[in-house]
Amino acid sequence: MTLSVISKKISTCKECLLHKTRTNTVSGEGSEKAEVIFVGEGPGQSEDLAGRPFCGAAGKYLDELLQKTGFKRKEVFIGNIVKCRPPGNRDPLPVEIDACTPYLDQQIEVINPKLIVTLGRFSMNHFLPKCGISRDHGKVFKKGNRLYFPIFHPAAALYRGQLKEMIEADFAKIPKILKDFDKIMENKKEAEDKNEDIEDKNKKSSDDQSAMMRDLEDKPIQSQMNLGL
Q: What architecture is the 3-179 domain classified under in CATH?
């Protein structure tokens, strides 16, 4: 499987009703050897017309963020949760997300990045369903053999200017996350192991307490039997 093969499959996809209203599919673009993938929500009007991700106003801002942090667009991979524009730029529906994310999962499998940067809550919720964007943006999470880093969607800065500084501060962390990838993975793994040990000890303690309670409950019955009651 290659990215081009996946793109061809996406271009003829009719798994949900978005295929009836799209102008073009927007499969994503970038390097098949990218260390980092940026995942947004879905194509807007500009993307639908061009067939490319992040080429409107939010895309221009994303390009600025990439340049400021030393990335070239061709060196990363940029995609979305859904590959077709929801009419009127509405939020994608769960049935549309379910139909489309297998393509994204295939792209991730081909690229095998170290880091996935989620742009906005829909992208974050797909990978990190227990997280909240306001609470967890700018934090690093480990799942399996890669890291995840939630950030507000670049479009948010266009209509909520107070988020711009926050987005840029989070974005500036990405090069260091990649540089320290092995160390972060090791630290996260150690934390996971400690949590598992605590959970195992808590479970053993709970099991011991349950066994003790059962033993106490059985003793009066045994005493009554011994007394012939």
A: 3-Layer(aba) Sandwich (3.40)
Contacts of 105 (CB under 8 A, 6+ apart): none
Environment class of 192 (CB within 10 Å of its CB; exposed 0-12, middle 13-18, buried 19+): exposed
pTM: 0.84
The rounded distance, in Å, linking the Cα atoms of 223 and 201 is 33
Axis-axis angle for helices 57-68, 164-171 (nearest 10) = 40
Let me know: does 36 contact 117? Beta carbons within 8 Å: yes
Is residue 227's pLDDT more than 50? Answer: no
Q: Where are the domains of the chain?
A: 3-179, 181-229
Average of per-residue pLDDT across 142-162? 94
